[in-house]
DNA sequence: TTCGATTTGTTCGTATGTATT
DNA sequence: TAATACATACGAACAAATCGA
């Protein structure tokens, strides 16, 4: 019996060869995903500029288009990039709309969404204490910005937050161009500094309002508030900022959907 | 995942025929995903029984294996099923471990996970008031179970929750076999009734402890607590239960990760 | 406005690697 | 060991959206 031969070029040897990386052998599509992620995390690609096309990536990495597609499909599922038929592939945009809905899950109790109005109460330079240093992965005493904002929803003060971010991440930032931003803070990080916040971790607790916060919210001291301690991360688990937010949940609430990815069509 | 919708349909012929469903044309892989989801939601498939193989599904729906794979890949990404090389594809198991980590994001403040011990304080039959009826999508006055649990972590009472679920969903349930369950509640719904909780929506607020709750937690009345109002859903957005949980966040916290899907390797 | 080039989206098919039974 | 079932990879054809000539 004649050994059945493929009709096409027998061009194959060790097709299954995986890439060695950090000692682990990754499938090619994972390796490509990692490469693309690295390129994005370097900030070299602007938000409105398309990534290389499938064909270009396939050529660059010496794989088939299907393999590139698989890598990109996962990045789409993870909201890192968006693709548009006929246009190309782009960094997931941090429009106010998307950002708000994705990273700012505070709604009016009846479910309506309201756009917050931001008042910057304080903008100052400081040095990282031990806890902040740990959260931001910088040395203790490293220069940071400390920014306090009051956010009004429906005309009422609802959120009070205090942000700490390493000065090294935002070189040349002044209070003037910070408050002049036409954007959410994460959108500002992206457009002005090429820093993409892709993940946040919130730690939520119920706390009693201190005197000053109570005054700002117009409630009795000791009233129950929702506290969120958040650290925001960019690619490769690098921390960007640490943020403490106090939320007046009389008329608003923090919504969390677990398993919301389950969408059939 | 799907992109912008058509503005015009030039309608050319080809084997590209999509399936018409609810008036919308779905790609075949989406249609298959929907079909499989329906089969799972019917409860016909036990948690330890494999789904049909790729080859069988491909034959049944008259598509290539690659198309079936694409449908299953999305279901895997959504945690609806898990696949094991050499074994098959299974409903995502509701093991205590996985359930706890997925649907119960309460951690000790230092980050450690603790397994809660459950005390059932009340188990009674009742009728749905207006709000409960709306949450559970049943008629007002429909028979429900009302279950109150106290959960201890590290030996201390940390969570107090009150569950409301339609009696029609759990026919024949008695307090005896409820408290005798060797499982989390969601695991019990699955193993005993074939009901799979796949999504929950939590609405979080800071609230003051009422007298009874304060007594249970051993704290002063009026102390700040974290309140979670949760509705749990199964396939096709059908509500399963409504739950109010009060959390004593002195030593514990509710963790929420937004963008946690971003995992490169 | 039309048309064609470009780019992503969907579907098919094949070959082979690897884990499980 | 052999059969089974999923995992990775390649390649091709056609559909549909976008954009600029």
Care to give the gist of this entry?
Chain A has 265 residues and is of the alpha+beta class. Chain A is 27% helix and 32% strand.
- Mind telling me the C-alpha Rg of chain A? 23 Å
Share of residues in strands of chain A: 25-35%
> Which whole number gives the mean pLDDT of chain A?
86
Query: Percentage of helical residues of chain A?
Result: 25-40%
Low-confidence stretches of chain A: 1-17
User: Which chains have the largest interface?
Assistant: A-B, 51 and 52 residues
- Under CATH, the topology of the largest domain in chain A can be stated as Chorismate lyase
What oligomerization state is this entry in?
Answer: homodimer
Name given to the CATH homologous superfamily of the largest domain in chain A: Chorismate lyase-like
Treating each run of at least 4 consecutive H or I residues as one helix, how many helices of chain A? 8
Strand order of the largest sheet of chain A: 6-7-8-11-10-9
Shape call of chain A: globular
Q: Which CATH class of the largest domain in chain A applies here?
A: Alpha Beta
Number of strand elements of chain A: 12
- Main sheet: strands, sense, barrel of chain A: 6 strands, antiparallel
Structural class of chain A: alpha+beta
The structural domain count of chain A equals: 2
Q: State the order of secondary-structure elements of chain A, H for helix, E for strand.
A: EEHHHEEHEEHEEHHEHEEE
């Amino acid at each position: 019996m004649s050994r059945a031969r493929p009709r096409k070029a027998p061009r194959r040897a060790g097709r299954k060869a995986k890439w060695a990386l950090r000692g682990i052998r990754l499938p090619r599509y994972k390796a490509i995903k990692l490469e693309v992620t690295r390129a994005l995390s370097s900030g070299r690609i602007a938000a409105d500029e398309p990534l290389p096309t499938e064909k270009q990536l396939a050529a660059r990495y010496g794989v088939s288009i299907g393999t590139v597609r698989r890598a990109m499909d996962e990045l789409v599922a993870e909201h890192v990039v968006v693709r548009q038929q006929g246009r190309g592939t782009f960094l997931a945009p941090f429009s106010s709309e998307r950002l708000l809905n994705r990273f700012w899950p505070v709604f009016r109790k009846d479910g309506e969404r309201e756009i917050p109005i931001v008042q910057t109460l304080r903008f100052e330079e400081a040095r990282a204490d031990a806890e902040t240093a740990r959260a931001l992965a910088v040395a203790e005493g490293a220069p940071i910005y400390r920014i306090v904002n009051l956010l009004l929803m429906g005309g009422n003060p609802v959120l009070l937050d205090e942000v700490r971010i390493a000065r090294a991440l935002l070189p040349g930032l002044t209070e003037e161009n910070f408050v002049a931003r036409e954007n959410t803070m994460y959108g500002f990080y992206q457009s002005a500094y090429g820093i993409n916040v892709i993940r946040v971790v919130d730690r939520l607790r119920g706390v009693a309002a201190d005197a000053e916060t109570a005054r700002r919210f117009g409630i009795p001291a000791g009233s129950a508030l929702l506290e969120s301690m958040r650290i925001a991360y960019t690619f490769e688990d690098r921390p960007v900022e640490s943020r403490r937010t106090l939320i007046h949940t009389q008329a608003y609430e923090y919504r969390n959907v677990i398993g919301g990815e389950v969408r059939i069509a």
